[in-house]
Design a protein that fits this description.
Rossmann fold, AB_hydrolase_1, AB_hydrolase_fold, Fluoroacetate dehalogenase, AB_hydrolase_sf, about 15% strand
């Protein structure tokens, strides 16, 4: 079914230190490499509308993050810290022959992306961040408005509380989030084939646990927030060109600090921005607008 969503793309199973990673790769092997990292609770399939067009000018790799999609879902302390995943992604890309690449991430994938780019800026040619603010800023927003994004606090609670709650009816929980965060308030934006792939993953107990571990690593006092705090204190910023792509109906709602401003005052003072009139899942809700923004930024 994933083959249908990515015509002409190769299926890659990549052995690494934590198991196997799954990816789809398309475009000329000689073209500039572009890595696409998906968000929660999805998989590489979220890129199916935009990846084929991007592959006309780039060698596009759509990766299932650790614990998501068809990639392995290991457990262990700090296994889902974004610094660790970033290093693993660099090793994976090196194994594919790419030591320097453009990088675009949505949601949790964007958190891996900006951490990787801060830690190893020489690896990243251009960085596109879709619909997030830095993790430390996100927790500041939640502290100021405890009702904001309650899934952050719920999913980061100690095991097995969230795993048990979700496990009673995973489809209801995750489909409820997809509908709640989309601009239309339902599942109409999602291709049934992609939804089938998402459901395949999020009904597996080991993957539910991995999702929660991802959020625990991004918890209020977790390694992701600590890494942000250390970099802010050191004045570290992203030296490569950065695009902040935000949604009007999810991230940049009235009264919230615009995502672009949050990035400019923290890690990306020279970032450029684009806002789409969508909910959170812009690559599926408005693929034409998302593609236009990415192509304009990435070139080719």
């Amino acid at each position: 079914m994933s083959d249908d969503l990515f015509p002409g793309f190769e299926a890659l199973w990549i052995e690494n230190s934590w198991g196997k990673a799954f990816a789809r790769a398309g475009g000329s092997p000689d073209a500039p490499p572009l890595l696409l990292l998906h968000g929660f609770p999805e998989s590489h399939a979220m890129w199916h509308h935009v990846a084929p067009d991007l592959a006309r000018s780039h060698r596009v790799i759509c990766l299932d993050l650790k614990g998501y999609g068809w990639s392995s879902a290991p457990s262990g302390e700090d296994a889902y810290a974004k610094r660790r995943i970033g290093r693993e992604v660099v090793a994976l890309m090196e194994g594919l022959g790419h030591v320097h690449f453009a990088l675009a991430g949505h949601d949790r994938g964007a958190r891996v992306a900006y951490r990787l780019a801060l830690d190893e800026p020489g690896r990243v040619a251009r960085l596109a961040l879709l619909d997030i603010v830095p993790t430390l800023v996100q927790w500041q927003r939640i502290a100021a408005d405890p009702g904001r994004n309650p899934h952050w606090s719920f999913l980061s609670r100690p095991a097995p509380e969230p795993e048990t709650g979700i496990g009673r009816d995973p489809d209801a929980y995750f489909e409820g989030l997809l509908a709640q965060w989309s601009g239309q308030g339902d599942l109409s934006a999602f291709d049934p084939r992609a939804l089938h792939l998402y459901r395949q993953a999020w009904t597996v107990p080991e993957r539910i646990h991995a999702f929660c571990e991802d959020y625990r690593a991004g918890g209020r006092d977790g390694p992701d927030a600590r890494a942000d705090a250390d970099d802010l204190a050191a004045g570290r910023t992203l030296p490569m060109p950065v695009l902040v792509l935000s949604s009007r109906r999810y991230l940049d709602k009235p009264g919230a600090e615009p995502a672009l401003e949050a990035w400019r005052r923290t890690f990306a003072p020279r970032a450029e921005g684009c806002q789409l009139d969508t909910g959170h899942f812009m690559a599926e809700e408005d693929p034409a607008g998302t593609l236009a923004a990415l192509k304009g930024f990435l070139g080719g």
